[in-house]
Amino acid sequence: MSDITFFTEHTGIQLQELDPLQDRLEDEIGRISAAWGRGYDTEYASLTLPSDQDLISRVSRLAENKKALDPAMVIVVGIGGSNLGTMAILQALGVGQDIAYFADTVDTPYILRMKEKAEQHLQEGRQVLVVVISKSGSTAETIANAQLFVSLLKKHRTDYNNYMVIISDDHSPLADVAHEHSFSYLAIPKHVGGRYSVFSAVGLFPLAVLGVDIIALREGAQSMKETCTAPDLAHNPAALSAATLYHLYQKEFRIHDTFVLGHSLFGIAQWYRQLMAESIGKEENNQGQKVHVGITPTTSIGSVDLHSVAQLYLAGPNIQSTTFITVANQQDIAVPSDTAFDNVVPMIQNRTFNEIMDAITIGMQKAYIHADRPFMTIELPEISAYHCGQLLQMKMVEIMYLGFLFDINPFNQPQVESYKKETRKILSHE
Amino acid sequence: MSDITFFTEHTGIQLQELDPLQDRLEDEIGRISAAWGRGYDTEYASLTLPSDQDLISRVSRLAENKKALDPAMVIVVGIGGSNLGTMAILQALGVGQDIAYFADTVDTPYILRMKEKAEQHLQEGRQVLVVVISKSGSTAETIANAQLFVSLLKKHRTDYNNYMVIISDDHSPLADVAHEHSFSYLAIPKHVGGRYSVFSAVGLFPLAVLGVDIIALREGAQSMKETCTAPDLAHNPAALSAATLYHLYQKEFRIHDTFVLGHSLFGIAQWYRQLMAESIGKEENNQGQKVHVGITPTTSIGSVDLHSVAQLYLAGPNIQSTTFITVANQQDIAVPSDTAFDNVVPMIQNRTFNEIMDAITIGMQKAYIHADRPFMTIELPEISAYHCGQLLQMKMVEIMYLGFLFDINPFNQPQVESYKKETRKILSHE
Q1: Is A225 considered catalytic here?
Q2: What mean pLDDT value characterizes chain B?
Q3: Residue B308 near chain A (CB below 8 Å)
Q4: Of residues A183, A333, A419, nearest to B148 (C-beta)
Q5: Which of B:10-69 have CB within 8 Å of A?
Q6: In whole angstroms, what is the distance from residue B153 CA to residue B155 CA?
Q7: Domains and CATH numbers, chain B
Q8: Taking the model in full, what pTM does it have?
């Protein structure tokens, strides 16, 4: 199977300029290579997920079991790292779009519409599966939504616990609830944080229930081991991308745009937005010094956003780098030639949609080059579970390298606690 | 009817610091006041839309006419300024979500799914309305999609032109097509650019067909005249917001996040993203000097993005300002108390969804204050067409003031032409 391809000729950086970063990365590449697939005891635990045979067996067995219930609706209750990867892959593959729902926050109009839809299914005899995902097991929004949807299930089904799945850390209060109430349960390894959990049960279980080929997804992820641990940057896209982003940051490029060509890849851009923001945005470095580093991740969709933000991207302050994500092969549509509009834009006549999109993409990249805006490109041979696995794995390893270069911890999120503490105070004392 | 409220106590700026900007804005406030409602001859033409009685009559008549066809699907063919306002208002109000489709770009998998859905309706005897919107009338993506959907209509309906509506500039090739082929047609005034066109037929017609109260929407917009042309900043939210953003830009705040509380306001954040990026991101100032100014607009949803980007926002480089958009009153849900999860997060028991969301919002804002991150807040009394009209109008006027402060033209988009030129070359010579 062909691999995703990574292009860096338009970053304005010569490869030898990155030599000092290559030297700095050498040990970290060694550590990641050594940790990959070797268990859950280190912070690189997520790299063991794609080759964990026990995990895939447990997930596949439970997924078959729940698919047999033939759910008309699968409600994933979870927020942030608990759902972004699943949403990204479903959207990319065009799978489960009518069945999958994501109860993320305590957003009344949004959740009420979801509840009404679920209630209608239940009243009409169809089944609703509720999957509650929280690593800590104590996320307020997730538990509020879990209470709402389990209450609904109870009202309509005496065997309601058969339609519940809990995914959490073994030591969380949610795991205790699952055991007490005989809800199906899958564990998230202790050292796999939310934003690195897409290849754990967090992503694999809902994806499998909804029909994604999780074997191919894992194979794609695992296939990146060699290339993402190659010692020289020229052959290691994860390390090269990290070094490029770090080098550009030193030159004041404080924003990074993931610009996907086509709506279906937008979820992947949003998944990466969390991964980059939460991993790299840090107040302190590993020595405890206040450094306030971070790259602001933005997300754009082509060609839609050429008609919205491209004016800024091409003309504004030159402080943003871009990674375009393109797809080489997909279905195509010919522009029909029997309509009143045939003479309006002569250049698109006898063309296909993909030809037009490709011309726009190249035209846009030429405009970026002309305006001296640095960019990289990742090309997927096609949108498949395998290539999604490759892309997501490459990006997670890139962020580990990038965290190392910034000398910060890419696995924690200390500031998230700050607003949670304030929120707890308000809810407890009001 | 109560108005939207604008809060600026947490920008870290004393009002008197903005006095020099107030002085600079004085003449521009006078010009906007004089132009508001006074016709379509100036670049402030969009300010005449909400009080144009002829416009509302024409739009309402055509909308009644097309609603009588009882369309099961309304496909809006258009991109950027041609659909972002419509999408924003529909999402905010929760209207037309199952009927409205947006064919924006030549994205094969995305458009094919839409085409299949339309074909199914047509085959089963239901009606599909196709609204083609392009100011220039020559947007490649829009015309390609128009050809696709009109071809589909022709295949299934002999009176297909009855199901077509064209919205364009009177002098565009699309207007000519509409007249030749007896498609229903509505005009966009020459000086109303895409990103300022939500209160023209561009927004009003599809919104009216889908059931939005466009009279209330316009009244909300028009109701902002007095406050958005008040001479002193303290009583003029549009000018105060512009002055604040400009002042922060001078202090290196290069990013502005529109952080909405709840999914339903996300479309409004995305609409503003275009408005700010395309209006303010400029290579040259009004004297033709290369200045490369611009504020990068980002968009976030609460509380979802507290679990994704808040770590960066609170800990990273202090270069981002924020406008939170909150809603005072909406439906509510009580957290049920009959479930296995009742003891997991004690503080949310006997609470409602809105109480939890409010506590999170306040907790988050306290964390922003503690981390010294500047923010403004706009509160909507409720989500209604009237208040959407107020908010969008305030934001458009804010951007006009901001363009004036930057000494750039907020109404043009010269760089967009650069990639279009490259694209044309490729499609014409390949």
Answers
A1: no
A2: 97
A3: yes
A4: A333
A5: none
A6: 5
A7: 5-34+229-406 (3.40.50.10490), 45-214 (3.40.50.10490)
A8: 0.98
